[in-house]
Specification:
heterodimer; A: about 400 residues; alpha+beta; Butyryl-CoA Dehydrogenase, subunit A, domain 2; Butyryl-CoA Dehydrogenase, subunit A, domain 3; 3 domains; 4-stranded mixed sheet; 4-stranded antiparallel sheet; about 45% helix; B: about 375 residues; Butyryl-Coa Dehydrogenase, subunit A, domain 1; 10 strands; about 50% helix; globular; binds flavin-adenine dinucleotide
Chain lengths: ~400, ~375
């Protein structure tokens, strides 16, 4: 056993760190640090930089535009991105549909879609959930009916994150109502510009609108856009959920939030001193930092096991649970640090170019909305209740 | 011991409940929040007509002469409706300060018009550095002939924009964190030297930052005793906490019922999600949290009259801790059990979640009062 990465990895780490500090546009780094809204254009610029270096899709096989890095190197890269203040890249193409396409897609699909993702040309969104099918995803109803060389799609997807940014949507659709519900689902790639698609933004509690309902009325999709076999979509979806959960720990990003929490606690006053010197608040910070450390090293243990080719299964559900609880707790402490100044609602202050004096401190405006927003993390990507069900059933055999 | 309402209190409750039912659908509230002032003057007049604005004002000053229980009844109903009229700022805190600390002339001048809905009040007690310490006051009031001249800043003053008079705490003696040496002043909102920056709050209310630059006042502006303002602050903070506790109970009750209804009707995996045992336990814990909050709301209200200052202080701090704990649990779980729907602006859940979250910050959050309680 050894807690340290080998010297080779430290060289890699240095390289990644230098890359981020040399290439991340300073205005974007500043926005991330201040918790301002990241616009599509910001993310697009940063993803162009990564794509230019060939690092937008590091986990992919080299022949499709990946880096050939080991699991550990990828982990280090993630850490360095977060530490350098880079915004989270859009996961829908790179981490979700990409792996499905290179694992189950045909050659035409691979040749067409993969370079467009790795080169930051197409943006994707995920069309799984429906009003009646959330946790029970397999009960989805959006219909795809074969009409010659096209599928005709009718139905509604909902909670679709960033559908308004997307060029393409990957959807689970019902192609059969016979047999088990899981066995009548197919995986389709759909152009968002197809006639018959309508996007309705959904306003969320924090005042944002990152999710949407996507309506399909007689949308015609070429059969060539079917991934793998008809009625096998559930298998591909499960494969993808595994992928999604594997990248979910994201302790690097949470560590940055803890750094921010300490900075803010060092600036806010409490009891005639700084909040960071308040023994109770110090304890709260320490507690969340310890939980984060436990998460990080659990993640690393699973990572090293995977790197040695040992299978890691449903255990990763635990990473999703703890990672999201920790993110939520940090966001709660950040808001609490403000005291009364959590109250003002100044959404303009989160936009670029707003140059009035802040109300309270300049970091204040983002924090209460962020706390409200982070409640989503225990709901999406398989709710934490569902993750606990999975742990109980698959790992503990209950 | 008796935890039931008197006949008159029950009538009051019925009429406030009716008001909330009729005037406070989520859409009606949404419309009010979107107006310039963020609430309805019409509702305010109605409250005056029904005697609600003077519910705790002595009869001699045009009020009903009720007390803390009446306020509790009103605030709980207002919590259920997420009422945005400035009742807390203007009546509970503002009116309470005048009733507790005002001299005869001030009471005569202010309380009847307050009860009639002709004037509104606001109360500026927080400052940038003060966090929740009411005695941490840097705003200075210096003697100037018979009166004073005030300089400083007051932060997050709820509903200051619509208030005719704003009561502020200022330091007349001592160091910036001494309990002695604080004096309260009644300022006209349009007085020279007072500037405001108004803004909405995350839970749909309004507040302001106040800057005081050579604000000159006469001796008639002094509320209560010079240098002894802290006792008044402390009293009013306990009254405020009791009112907030009641409001939070109203909010939590709605979340509990809404969520209970939702888990009975929302189906996944072929059955209502309320059939899953983990959801049942979660609901049971939400119920417990609500019951605990209600008990502590009653305690905070009824102890206001306790002759023992220590009992009063403990009950108030304990109530703020318990409602803080309860409201965090209930509001987070209400969102969670609604799944994606809980995250929307469309459903009422998120609106109660935000209001409850901000109630925790009002007059000191649970951590603050836990620390105080431990040291009592
Ligand atoms: C901000 C946000 C972004 C999202 N982005 C996307 C996206 O891009 N694409 C997409 O397809 N979807 C997306 N989703 C949808 C998300 O995956 C669903 O919200 C989630 O699967 C839960 O489904 P639901 O909302 O229908 O809640 P429900 O499934 O109705 O669940 C309600 C509650 O019941 C609980 N519950 C359900 N079943 C059980 C059970 N068997 N045992 C115990 N408890 C149970 C849940 O945990 C939850 O607490 C997003 C959601 C949010 C909030």
């Amino acid at each position: 056993m050894d807690l340290n990465f080998s010297a080779d990895y430290r060289v890699f780490q240095e390289k990644a760190r230098t890359f981020v500090s040399d290439n991340l546009p300073p205005d974007i780094r500043d926005k991330v640090r201040r918790g301002l809204n990241i616009q599509k254009d910001d993310l697009h610029r940063w993803q162009d930089v990564l794509a230019g270096q060939g690092w937008l899709a590091p986990a992919w096989p080299v022949e499709h535009g990946g880096t050939g890095w080991s699991l550990v190197e990828r982990h280090i890269f993630q850490e360095e991105l977060a530490r350098g203040g880079a915004p989270q890249t859009s996961p829908f193409g790179v981490s979700m549909v990409g792996p499905v396409i290179y694992t189950f897609g045909d050659d035409t699909q691979k040749q067409h879609y993969l370079p467009r993702i790795a080169n930051n040309i197409d943006w994707w969104c995920q069309g799984y959930s429906e009003p009646g099918a959330g946790s029970d995803l397999a009960s989805l109803q959006t219909k795809a009916e074969r009409d010659g060389e096209v599928y005709v799609i009718n139905g509604q997807k909902t909670w679709t994150s960033y559908a308004n940014y997307a060029d393409m949507i990957f959807c689970l659709v019902r192609t059969s109502t016979k047999g088990k519900i899981q066995e009548g689902i197919s995986f389709l790639l759909i152009d968002m510009k197809s006639p018959g698609i309508e996007i309705h933004p959904i306003r969320t509690v924090d005042g944002g609108a990152e999710v949407n309902s996507v309506f399909f009325t007689d949308v015609r999709v070429p059969v060539a856009n079917l991934v793998g076999e008809e009625n096998k979509g559930w298998t591909y979806a499960k494969f993808l959920l595994g992928h999604e959960r594997g990248t979910v720990a994201n302790s690097a990003a949470s560590k940055q939030q803890v750094v921010k929490l300490k900075e803010i606690a060092g600036a806010e006053r409490s009891g005639g001193r700084f909040l960071i010197d308040d023994p109770d608040f110090k304890r709260d910070i320490a507690e969340v930092e310890i939980a984060l450390t436990a998460l990080e090293y659990t993640d690393l243990r699973y990572l090293m096991a995977s790197a040695k080719g040992q299978p890691v299964g449903a255990e990763v559900s635990m990473l999703k649970i703890r990672a999201t609880e920790i993110q939520q707790r940090i966001s709660e402490l950040l808001m609490k640090a403000l005291g009364y100044y959590a109250n003002p609602y100044v959404p303009e202050a989160l936009e670029e170019g707003w140059n009035e004096d802040p109300i309270g401190s300049d970091y204040a405006a983002a924090l209460a909305p962020q706390y409200f927003n982070k409640r989503k993390t225990s709901i999406y990507g398989g709710s934490n209740e569902i993750q606990r069900n999975i742990l109980a059933k698959m790992v503990l055999g209950l | 011991m008796d935890f039931s309402l008197s006949e008159e209190q029950q009538l009051l409750k019925d009429s406030v409940d009716r008001f909330v039912r009729e005037e406070y659908s989520l859409d009606q509230r949404r419309n009010l929040v979107a107006t310039d002032e963020g609430f309805s003057r019409e509702n305010w007049s109605k409250m005056a007509e029904l005697g609600w604005l003077g519910v705790a004002v002595p009869e001699a000053y045009g009020g009903i002469g009720g007390g803390a229980v009446e306020i509790m009844v009103m605030m709980e109903a207002f919590g259920e409706g997420l009422v945005v009229e400035p009742y807390m700022a203007s009546i509970v805190l503002g009116g309470g300060l005048i009733a507790e600390g005002g001299d005869e002339a001030q009471k005569q001048a202010i309380l009847p018009s307050l009860a009639e809905g002709k004037i509104m009040l606001a109360f500026g007690y927080a400052e940038r550095q003060s966090r929740y310490d009411l005695f941490d006051v840097e705003t200075k009031a210096e003697k100037d002939g018979a009166g004073y001249v005030l300089n400083g800043h007051k932060g997050v003053v709820f509903h200051a924009a619509v208030a005719d008079k704003i009561i502020v705490s200022a330091r007349t003696a001592g160091g910036s964190r001494d309990t002695n040496g604080i004096t309260l002043f009644i300022l006209d909102n349009n007085c020279t030297g007072l500037s405001r920056r108004d803004y909405p709050t995350v839970d749909g209310l309004r507040a302001s930052e106040l800057t005081l630059e050579n604000v000159k006042v006469g001796s008639d502006a002094i509320l209560g005793d010079v240098d002894r303002g802290f006792a008044l602050l402390d009293t009013i903070s306990q009254q405020g906490i009791a009112a907030l506790a009641a409001e939070s109970v109203g909010c939590m009750t709605v979340l509990l019922n809404t969520t209970n209804e939702y888990v009975k009707t929302r189906k996944q995996f072929g059955q209502p999600i309320g059939k899953f045992q983990v959801i049942q336990h979660r609901m049971a814990d939400m119920f417990i949290a609500c019951e605990e909050a209600r008990s502590m709301s009653y305690l905070a209200t009824l102890r206001l009259e306790d002759p023992d200052a220590g009992e009063r202080a403990r009950a108030s701090a304990a109530a703020k801790v318990q409602i803080g704990k309860s409201l965090v649990y209930v509001s987070q779980q209400a969102v969670q059990l609604h799944g994606g729907m809980g995250m929307t602006d469309e459903l009422n859940v998120g609106h109660y979640f935000k209001r409850l979250t901000m109630i925790d910050t009002m007059l000191g959050d649970q951590d603050y009062h836990l620390k105080r309680y431990a040291e009592m």
